Amino acid sequence: MEIGIDVGSTGIKIVFVVPGKSGNPDQVVWKIVMPTKPGQSALVNDLIQQGLTAIGESPSGIEKTCVTGYGRKLIQSTNHVVDEIWANAAGITYLTRGRARTLINVGGQDVKIIKLTESGQVTDFKMNDKCAAGTGRFFEIAANILDTPLDDFHTKDIEPVNINSICAVFAESEIVSLLAKGVNKFSIIKGINNAVARRIAALAGNGILDGDVYIDGGPANNKGLVESLEDQLLCDIKVVEEPQFTVALGSLYVD
Amino acid sequence: MTQPEINPRLLRLQLKTREQIKKETCDQAAKIKNRDDYIKALDPFLESLALSLFPKKFIEKAVIAPVMTMCIQAPMELFSAAGLPVFKLACGSHAAGNLAPLQFPALTCPMIKSLAGLLDPQSGLDLTRQRFVIPTTCDWVVKFSELTGLYGKADIHFMELPHLRENERSSRRWLEEIQALKSWLEKAGQGKITPKALHAAIQCHAKAFELFARLIELKRSQLMPAIHFALIANAFAYQDINFWKDNVRNYIDNLKPMENTLAPVLLIGSPIVFPNYKLLHLMENAGMAVAADDICSLERIFPGAVTFEDKSEYALLRALAERNHKACTCPTFADNERRINGIFNILEKEQIKGIIFHVLKGCHPYEMESGMLETQLKKKGYRFLKIETDYVKEDEQNIVTRLEAFRRTLGS
Fold first, then answer.
1. Domain coordinates of chain B in residue numbers?
2. Which contiguous run of DSSP H or E holds residue B319?
3. Which residue, A4, A14, B69, B321, is most buried by CB atoms nearer than 10 A?
4. Testing the interface with B: which of A68, A72, A125 to mutate, by most B Cβ within 10 A?
5. Contact (CB<8Å) A86/B398
6. CA distances from B121 to A182, A199, B58 (A)
7. What is the 3-state secondary structure of A119-141?
């Protein structure tokens, strides 16, 4: 059994994979996502133990452990440490059987746009800097203020309000002020999706998108964001199942 | 300049900032001294750079008061011929920016902001008694004296830099600027600069250039770490030329052979100045060596060799003017094909596949050139990564992720 760990800035994702034999695909037998807390190393060990118990395995059954994500260097006792850009590319390549040529990853505190080959080789990438606007953290803040889970951020037939602030902190006060003015919550949600999509589109510019475009990371579960992004980037965007686990899974497939 | 009444809060800020600058300097020095490749021969460079962060002390220690200069367009040979030492206005201290005057815009080039903090009038340094030579390169440099309140108070000699190079009119105008600088230095220094003294200064700097070219060779062959190179190049502006040459010779003699395991890359973009070696350290940690660079505080501190037809004053000044104008590849020039061609030449000659473009937030000329260069370099199959940052440490993790991923794109 192989374990892929993604120690992200806001969440730890772990997948247990049993390699497929005789041409059969690999099988994800257990997975978990937990908010990142101080003491990541101990937390990861506890989660691995939890996984082993859940599937009735012992530590001796672990053949390989790979770690990626912001906290990758904090985790001891792993076979392989890899950056999350290559892990992400490898993960999406595995899940799409090499169809993805562009990947948009909306992470907890950053956004990455990765160009890749059929075999998962990264040929180019862009990544935003230390700002939380347009990231998973931004959505978390908004969901909290709006008292609405991210799963309900999908709003089709409603006129969006314009969220002017590009800073996550200022956008927060703008959302509060819009709510105080009695603006419909779903108009605000659509406005947020559009604002984030605009920010991602600005990072993409007009040169990096190519071929089949996929999105992953936790916020990829927000269909409203995907629609806004399609609108901004003028292309179809595909989402893999459980997009928050792509990076953890991919860490196992980086050469 | 009249010293304003000292506000107690400002006084505390000043003391705290000085402590922070000291700490930044010590931390960087310790980081360098803890490296496996550290050699004692680096100490004189470290010492000069540490002192450069305290201009008042630097000036007090100097036998002759130095002239403060910015950028690399004013020929150093003229200062040497005038018998005047130089203090380069460049600063990589994050803490120093805390003392920058309030009128600086929020998104100011970090080097300019920290420099303004370094020259804080309350440091006891009487700026009205200092002499400045400022070539009009980027907008930040042009506005620097006004923003810091020096304009009209300190003795500033501006050199109007023609932003076109490849035409006769610009060359003529720049030659006039060089002649004007010579006259100004004669008044500021020890009298007339004779052709003989100028020729001797040119010869002396040519020897330094030879040594510097040897360092570039060592770095490009990855026999010398980029951090060492940065120390030596940065210190050039704060040491007497002969002292610097002795120190470089001593360094070369004592350099330890090193293993060549890092992927060579070309570093271009905004200046890298002590103690802000953040990017250099992070690149090494990510498995890359700056084998070559196109940075005005590193390989480009010497714009090139001086070639003259005869030893007359006119011929020598013209040679200096041509070298510091035509051969300079500062991004503020309107016709900058020379810079792009130079970058391609380095890449081909050194067989480098990856380019890292360093942009200091607020450094507009480099920011403007980055997109054009990215397109041209990628078209030719080179890997390109732009890192936009400033002097803070908070973005290190984000940068490391990008650098590690970029390193992998270069292959083995």
1. 12-409
2. helix B313-325
3. A4
4. A125
5. no
6. 53, 42, 15
7. CCCEEEEEECCCCCCCCHHHHHH
Token readout for B188 is 């500021």
Instruction: Give the type of residue at A9.
Output: S
Domains, chain A: 1-81 (3.30.420.40), 101-241 (3.30.420.40)
* Residue B372, burial from CB neighbour count under 10 angstroms (0-12, 13-18, 19+): exposed
Judging contacts by C-beta atoms under 8 Å, the chain B residues touching residue A123 are 409
ipTM here: 0.84
Residues in chain B, how many?
412
Give the closest-approach CA distance of B103 to chain A in angstroms: 24
Pairwise CA distance, residues A82 & A80, whole Å? 6
Beta carbons of B316 and B202 less than 8 angstroms apart: yes
Is the peptide bond between B275 and the residue preceding it cis, with omega within 30 degrees of 0?
yes
Query: B111 and B92 in contact (C-beta within 8 Å)?
Result: yes
Q: Which residue shows structure tokens 């391609």?
A: B344
DSSP string, A38-64: S-HHHHHHHHHHHHHHHHT--GGG--E
Q: Which two tokens stand for residue A106?
A: 């909306």
The two three-digit tokens of residue B246, written as one number = 């002795």
Residues B234-293: tens digit of each pLDDT: 999 999 999 999 999 999 999 998 887 899 999 999 999 999 999 999 999 999 999 999
The architecture that CATH gives domain B12-409 is: 3-Layer(aba) Sandwich (3.40)
Which helix (H) or strand (E) segment holds residue B22: the answer is helix B8-33
Q: What angle do CA A48, A53, A55 make, to 5 degrees?
A: 95
Q: Vertex B15, ends B11 and B21: CA angle to 5°?
A: 140
| Chain A residues within an 8 Å CB radius of B278 | none
